[in-house]
Write a structure and sequence with these properties.
Rossmann fold, 7-stranded mixed sheet, 3-stranded mixed sheet, 6 helices, 30% helix, globular
Length: 184
């Protein structure tokens, strides 16, 4: 299962491009999650998504979680229920893929404390506040957590897919898992 966490004002391109590549390569069921169920407006280009479930309602650790950026990423980062759900759902074997400001909720959940992380340059002060070490690299891999700037969202998914060729996915029972080894 792959969870796509939709922040309010989600950056459409940071969902569509990576999702196409990841879904094609992994064939995982996609669960659309938000703060709550219902429509989630997007921008760049304007398009609406629909959260089928609130993130707090998800009860299974996913194989992948895609966190695109958007105007509401900081809002998610300040929501204690979302933070608790992210901590619970980020347990192994979950691989977390954050684009642009999508790294903010992960940092707020303490999942990036002390780690190098990238994202939209305007998010860097907030990332530092949450204990992460922002850098200007286009993509940073830290174990099971991969962050990328928004300018490389489709390239981010393609590079991740290339890692899959070297490290996974592996079939484990009835679902795929991803093994990125100890890459840093």
């Amino acid at each position: 299962m792959m969870i796509v966490l939709l922040p309010p004002g989600v950056a459409t391109r940071e969902v569509v491009g990576p999702l196409e590549i990841l879904h094609e390569r992994l064939g995982l069921d996609v669960v659309w999650a938000g703060r709550q169920r219902g429509p989630v407006p997007g921008h760049d280009p304007p398009m609406s998504f629909h959260a089928d479930i609130g993130l707090t309602e998800v009860d299974q650790v996913p194989t992948l979680m895609l966190l695109p950026g958007g105007f509401g990423s900081l809002e998610l980062a300040l929501d204690q229920d979302i933070i608790a759900a992210l901590r619970r759902l980020s347990a192994p074997p979950a691989v977390l893929l954050a684009i642009s400001t999508g790294s903010l909720p992960l940092a707020a959940a303490g999942l990036l404390t002390g780690q190098r992380v990238t994202g939209h340059w305007l998010s860097h002060p907030h990332l530092r506040h949450f204990g992460a070490r922002p850098v200007t690299d286009e993509m940073v891999t830290a174990g099971r957590i991969i962050t990328a700037t928004g300018s490389v969202s489709a390239g981010f998914a393609a590079r991740f897919a290339a890692d899959l060729a070297a490290y996974g996915p592996r079939e484990t029972g009835d679902r795929a898992s991803v093994d990125l080894g100890q890459r840093t």
